[in-house]
Amino acid sequence: MTDRTQLRDEIALAALPHVVFDGWTEAVLKAAAKDCGHREGMAAVAFMGGPLEAAEHLADLADRKMAEELAGRDLSGMSVRERLALAIKVRLTQWADEKEAMRRTLQMFALPLHAPRAVRITARTVDAIWTAIGDRSADFNWYTKRFSLGAVYTATVLYWLDDSSEDGRDTWDFLDRRINDVLSGIKTRRKLTDDLAAFFKPLCDRFAAH
User: Fold this and answer.
1) Pairwise CA distance, residues 60 & 57, whole Å
2) Of 30, 64, 89, 95, which sees the most CB atoms within 10 A?
3) pTM
4) SS3 label, residue 180
5) What is the DSSP string of 28-95?
């Protein structure tokens, strides 16, 4: 980790208690820098793009923390469904004490003006999840898996934010159902692709022979 990345991590994390009340603002970043023992001006050094960049960096930090924890676990005996559920559970529970700050962050990214950035952040997160659980697909399945998981992840985050059940039990039940739906869909699309390939192969071979 570079010194600048560490500085950005520190300020983004220190901003969270302020974000709960004030959202992501320049003043919040300055206060966070001071909380870390830095000069206020270091907030601008760390995040030249301002509060939006800081919030996006927080998502990157969350992805890294998730990947780090999963790297320390033995996933070899787990099914894909179990690994996906674990990855998302880790991603969310690491921030269980920061739910309100996460809510304010999502509210900001939900604005139409910030939609492209929100899509980019979600895409990076679902890619980080698949990568962390060992996915090595490089064909069309790479896109299918990430697009499908993006919908599951987003829905689960929204459910989690309002979940008051013990240990988030309702969220994890919701997540399991969504993952089952996604994996069933991926298998169906894969079978359809294989069937179409098998159907057209004789025709392709015939034309190739001529």
Assistant:
1) 5
2) 30
3) 0.85
4) helix
5) HHHHHHHHTTS-TTHHHHH-TT-HHHHHHHHHHHHHHHHHHHHHTS--TTS-HHHHHHHHHHHHHHTT
